Amino acid sequence: MNHIRFNLKVYLLRHLQVMLFSLGQLWRQLLTSTMTVLVISISLALPAGLYILLQNIKQVSNQWNYVSQISLFMEYNFSDRQANTFTNKLQSWPEIDAVKYQTSNKSLENFRKLSGLDDLLNNLPNNPLPATIIINIKKDSLNPDTINNLLIRLEGFAEVEQAQFDMEWLKRLRSINKTGQLGIGILTTLLSLSVLLVIGNTIRLSIINRQSEIKVIKLVGGTNNFINRPFLYAGFWFGALGGIVAWFILLLTMALLSAPINELTLLYNSQFNFQWFLSPMIIALPISGIILGIFSSWIATKSYLSNIEPH
Amino acid sequence: MIKFINVYKHYHNNHQALSGLSFHIDEGEMTFLTGHSGAGKSTLLKLIALIERSSHGQILINNRNINGLPQNKIPYYRRQIGLVFQNHYLLFDRTVFDNVALPLVVAGENHREIGRRVRASLDKVSLLGKERSLPMVLSCGEQQRVVIARAVVNRPPILLADEPTGNLDCELSNDIMKLFEQFNQVGVTVFIATHNHDLISTLPYGRIILQHGHLAQ
């Protein structure tokens, strides 16, 4: 039993030695290693940055969902007295969160403020705008079927001239979001492939450079696993370092873009707060890098080591 | 220990390197393999070390046909054989100690045992003071002794040597040959390929002579 434990200790010690040896090899070829790590980090940072952007768009669209409203344009002869009864009736509907009545005069006043067409409006013989009821829909009822059903029911009232819910922009936003997700998926796949190729090619060159050493190790009874080990650890280091540098690239991007984004959101008087997801990214990026690094090294060693035999 | 039964080796270009070889070497025997250049000496040793596979016939090592050995078992098989080549196969960026330790490292031996065995091997080849030297600063004869130390550090039952004195002068060649005799005296089966007839003419060991891939004797 002691013997097995002792062997395990030796085995783990060898792994540690090889791991540090591989890091030393990267250090000895500093320029090449730095370039490889930078290519990997950019390939990881780009989809991560787009993912962050998409998550924020999603957050914005959710906020807009929450304030989604239906505007009811009433018949021209709809009176303020009728409005009280009508709004009370609507308020009792389970899909509706809040109802706000706006007289035709208030509508005209708002339009005057927004359009700046004072002179033209003053010359009108009477107010052409109808009274309006603005309905806030409950968050859990914000789905196309419920909203369509609600619109049909509201338009069924004789007092209602037109019920309007502009779903097109929401559909467009969701479509952009969906396309963005797909695009990021494709981009992530392509960039992951480029990481595989970059690391794989670096490992391939390293194998070629160490051909004579590999032959000697094979001659003295080294197994393929033993020979693979330093190359797999090299892939591990490339991936891990690439992931960490990618995280710093995101940090730098955040430092550069935070102020302009905050300024932009303030201009729109929005409560929106851009999320950078830096905490999950510091784990996700190096882990993705490590997985890609080890996988590409494994492919490279599998493809090239078997061809190197002593002769 | 080593038994060849009707062994053939031909290459893809139809070159017949070995033809119908049959012989055997007993355990603890020291044998020379001689013949002109291109007779097939190196090929024969490569077949024993499984660096190449025979085209036909059986090669029995300890009564086991190594031709059927799967590729993934070859490293474990090679740990039972000490190999010495004319062109050294040393790692020139590692110290003498690291070079000799290599077979023990790949076998997963612990540090203390590696240190003990490497020093013992270097002592046998009279290089104990040169553990920290790089092979580059050693003479040709010393480099060959490093290779021999590496070949025996694992205490293999079989030692194969392909032209081990090829680059050495007469005196150094005699020294190297004495080393092989010492290993043979402690029970190691030694099989040496050489074309240096003067060197072995006075030695009282068995000979296998190859001529154009055939056994001459």
Describe the model.
Chain A is α+β, with helices and mostly antiparallel strands and 311 residues long. Chain A folds into two domains: 13-64 and 171-307, no CATH class; 69-166, 2-Layer Sandwich (Alpha-Beta Plaits). Helix content of chain A is 73%, strand content 8%. Chain A contains ten helices and four strands, in the order H-H-E-H-E-H-H-E-H-E-H-H-H-H. Chain A has helices at 2-28, 30-66, 80-91, 104-115, 118-122, 144-155, 168-209, 211-219, 224-267, 278-304, and strands at residues 69-74, 96-102, 132-137, 160-164. A four-stranded antiparallel β-sheet of chain A has the order 2-3-1-4. In chain A, helix 1 packs across helix 9, helix 2 packs antiparallel against helix 7 (168-209) and helix 2 (30-66) packs across helix 10 (278-304). Chain A starts with a helix and ends in a 7-residue tail after the last helix. The model of chain A is unreliable at 1-5 (pLDDT under 50). Chain B has one domain: Rossmann fold, CATH 3.40.50.300. Chain B has helices at residues 41-48, 74-78, 96-106, 111-124, 140-152, 170-185, 197-200; strands spanning 2-10, 16-25, 30-35, 56-61, 64-65, 81-85, 158-162, 189-193, 206-211, 214-215. Chain B starts with a strand and ends with a strand. In chain B, helix 4 crosses helix 5. Chain B is globular. Chain B has seven helices and ten strands. Chain B has 217 residues and is α/β, with parallel strands linked by helices. A six-stranded mixed β-sheet of chain B has the order 6-7-8-3-9-10, sandwiched between helices. Chain B has a four-stranded antiparallel β-sheet with strand order 2-1-4-5, covered by helices on one side. Chains A and B meet through helix 1 and helix 8 of A and helix 2 and helix 3 of B.
